[in-house]
Design brief:
144 residues, alpha+beta, six-stranded antiparallel beta sheet, 3 helices, 6 strands, 33% helix
Amino acid sequence: MTRKIVRMWLLVALGIILVCLLCGMIWSGQEWSPARIERITGIRVPEYEITNTIKGERGFNGDYEDQIDLEFKSVPSDELFMEIDKMIAAGNSEWRRDGKRYSFSVRWGNGHPAPPGEREEDDGMFSITITRGKRTGEIRCGAW
């Protein structure tokens, strides 16, 4: 009888551990596909490869910020930056420009509206930075 109880508790503990690991993978393993980035930012990003990912520290309440370094297959076109310049001039986007550096940043949840396709309940944040004339970029994403 005692062995059965011990086995049962071991199986329960393993089940809890597996659920926690799966939840961690779901919440921290956000995928930032080109289609998702385009939906949020309003621009079509050039093809890229992820060159490095730095997982930020996870807070006790689930807050975190990850950094994803990108390398574009080719230098983003001048047309892309002209499109962003138009969005900035119109004042209807979260794009900003500082010299040759362009950045987009948005937070949602906690009373802030979610961008298209995202859920306000997720309390997310996303930013992307690209620089005119460079093949590299950076995404910062997480929960707050």
